[in-house]
Amino acid sequence: MPSYVPDTILAQGAGEGHDLTGAVVPPIHLATTFLRPSEGYSSTGWSYSRYGYPGLEKPEATLKVLEGAADCRLFGSGMSAMTAVVMALRPGDHCVFPIDMYHGLKTWLKAYAAHWGTRIDHVDMTDQDKVRAAVIPGVTRLVWLETPSNPHWHIYDIANLAEIAHEAGAKLVVDSTVATPVLTQPIKFGADIVVHSATKYLNGHSDVLAGAALTAANDSFWERVVFNRDYHGGILGQFQSALLLRGMRTLHLRVARSCESAMALADALERHPKVTAVFYPGLPTHPGHSLAARQMTGGFGGMLSIVVAGGASQADRVLTRTHIWKPATSLGGVESLIERREAIEGPDSHVDPSLLRLSVGIEATADLIDDLFSALDASIGS
Ligand code: PLP
Predict the structure, then answer these.
(1) Which residues contact 183 (CB under 8 A, 6 or more apart)?
(2) Domains in the chain with CATH codes
C-alpha cells in the first residue's frame, strides 16, 4: 500500500475495484477449501480457510500499515487474539500484567495461569519502580499493558515499560483497544506485540466480535502466535471480516468525534456537584495527562468513568434514567453506552461500586451532556 496518511488508508481500506466485476468493495468468499493442482499445493496460496482466505487480507493489511507492524492476524474475538499471545509462552514463564485492565482477560489469566503453570503478577503500571521490581530477568517473558486502561483510564508509559521489559529479556505487549491506531501506534514506542478487541472501535457498530494481533518482528514467538490461531481455529469468519473492513473505513471519523465529545463531557462532569470523581486522560487534573499528550495524537479517547455521590444504588438509578445512553457493557460503538462497572466485573472487582463507565458514541455532544446531566439530577439525592 502506498504511504498515504491514516485517514486515506482507512477510507480506501477496501482497495482497488474487484478484478472481475469492477465492484468497489471486495466480494465475500465463503469457500472453506481451495483447489490444489496435482502437485498437492494450491496455486493461489490459500488452502483451507482455518489458515486464511481472500477476504482477510485487506483488513489485515490495512491494520498492519496503520500500526507500522511487520505482520497482522485477525481472530474471532479480542480474547482469542490475546489468549493466542499468552499461550505462545512456555510453562513456567513469568508475565507482568497491570491491575487496571480488561477484567475478562484477568479472569482467564487466573484460571489459565494456575492450570498451565504460567506465573502472573499484577502490578500498578503507573509506577515504573513496581514494574522494575516485578520483572525477573531471564524468566519474565511478557510485560503486558493496556493504555488507556479499563476502567480508570490510567496511561502507561509504553516507551519506558518497553525498556524495562527488554532489559529483562521480555516482550512488551500493548492492548491498544481503547487508543486505536488512530491515537497511538505502540510499535513506534517500542512495543513488540499489539493486540486489539476489534469488536470495539475498529469495527465500531456493535455487530461484530473480532480481535487482532500485530507484531513488530517476524520472530519465533510470533510464529507460535500464528500457530495458535491456525491450530486452535481462532480465525475471524468471512462475513465478520467483510463487516470489520466496512467499519474500519470510518474509524478515524468516529474516533475523532468520540474524543471531542468525551473531552466536553469530562470537562462538564468535573464541575457537576453530584459527581465525586472523573477519570479521563484529557483532563489536566488526570495524573497521566502529560504522558497521554505525548503518547496519544489527535485526542485522549472516547472512554471515561465517573464516580457518583451516594453509592451503588444511586449509580444504578442514573443508568435507568438515561435515554440516549444505553445501559449495556462493551465500548467503541457509534451508540453511547453506560454501565456500572463493578456490577459487570463481579466479586473480584477492584472498582468503586459507584463508578459508571461511559463509552462515548458519535451522537451530538450537547444531547449526550443533557441526557446524562438530567439523569444525574433526577437520580441522586432526590
Ligand atoms: N481488551 C479490552 C480493552 C476490552 O475492552 C475487551 C472487551 O471488552 C477485550 C480486550 C476482549 O475483547 P472481545 O470481547 O472482543 O473478546
Answers:
(1) 255, 259, 296, 297, 298, 299, 300, 301
(2) 6-248 (3.40.640.10), 252-379 (3.90.1150.10)
